[in-house]
Amino acid sequence: MSARIRLEDRECPLSQTIQHVGEWWTLLILHDAFDGYTRFDQFQENLKISSSMLTTRLKTLVADGLLERRLYQRHPERYEYVLTDLGRSLRPVIVSLAAWGNSRLDPRKRSMILVDAETGEEVEPVVVDQATGRRVDTEEFVFTAGPAASEAMRARYEQATASGT
After folding, report:
1. Is there a single domain that holds both residue 58 and residue 18?
2. For residues 98 and 125, what is the distance between their CA atoms, to the nearest angstrom?
3. In this structure, are residues 35 and 29 in contact, taking their beta carbons and an 8 Å threshold?
4. Which H or E run includes 101?
5. At the N or C end, where does the chain have fewer CB atoms within 10 A?
6. CATH no. for residue 65?
7. Same structural domain for residues 81 and 97?
8. pLDDT value of residue 148
9. Looking at the domain assignment, is residue 23 inside a domain?
10. pLDDT number for residue 23
11. Whole-angstrom Cα distance, residue 19 to residue 70?
12. Is 48 left (phi over 0), alpha (psi -120 to 50) or beta?
């Protein structure tokens, strides 16, 4: 029987991340925030999302520390939602997801592309090791149990190592 890590165990960093950004509206709201949207009506108009769903998602993003809610008008009270440092740290994830989606499309069917802001040239993002600059999307890089891994997590990776995967 294989050792499995259940999502509810939340030991795996992937499951912890999905807990914060796994709901698709969350990723779309964050994408809009990276594009400079800060106000409720801007998010709602662009995403065509119900006000109740948007309210719920924004509250969660604030509670998770990804957005900060700031008063920008007193009468009537109005708030804007601004990316925190933690929220901004998700930019590479959003960029990578968009690039992955675009890589599966005919270039003429892409509605959004990533470009160098200075030159306007389209760029292809890749994930690299910060120390070496090597791409980490190859089989040369694998996951293994970390220092805080449970016995189940250690067993999972020992099994993977033994089988060569």
Report:
1. yes
2. 10
3. no
4. helix 91-103
5. N
6. 1.10.10.10
7. no
8. 86
9. yes
10. 75
11. 24
12. left
Distance CA 25, CA 58 (A): 10
Question: Could you count the other beta carbons within 10 Å of the beta carbon of residue 79?
Answer: 16
Locate 41 and state its tokens: 């009506």
Tokens 């509206």 belong to which residue? 25
Give the residues across from 68 on adjacent strands. 82
Residue partners of 20: CB distance under 8 A and separation at least 6: 26, 64, 66
**What is the spatial distance between Cα 13 and Cα 130, in angstroms, rounded to a whole number?**
19
**Full domain range(s) for residue 33:** 9-88
The number of residues making up the chain comes to: 165
Does residue 80 sit within a domain? yes
Question: Under 8 Å CB-to-CB from 67, ≥6 apart: which residues?
Answer: 33, 58, 61, 81, 82, 83, 84, 87
Q: Give me 39's structure tokens.
A: 């106000």
Closest C-alpha among 45, 15, 11, 3 to residue 28: 45
pLDDT, tens digit (0-9, with 9 covering 90-100), for 68-104: 999 999 999 999 999 999 999 999 989 998 999 999 9
In a domain, 1, yes or no: no
Residue 65 bridge partners (DSSP): none
Mean pLDDT, 10 residues at a time, the chain of 165 residues: 50 69 83 96 95 95 96 94 96 91 90 94 93 93 88 82 62
Side chain identity at 9, as an amino acid letter?
D
Name 15's Cβ contacts closer than 8 Å, sequence gap at least 6.
5, 7, 9
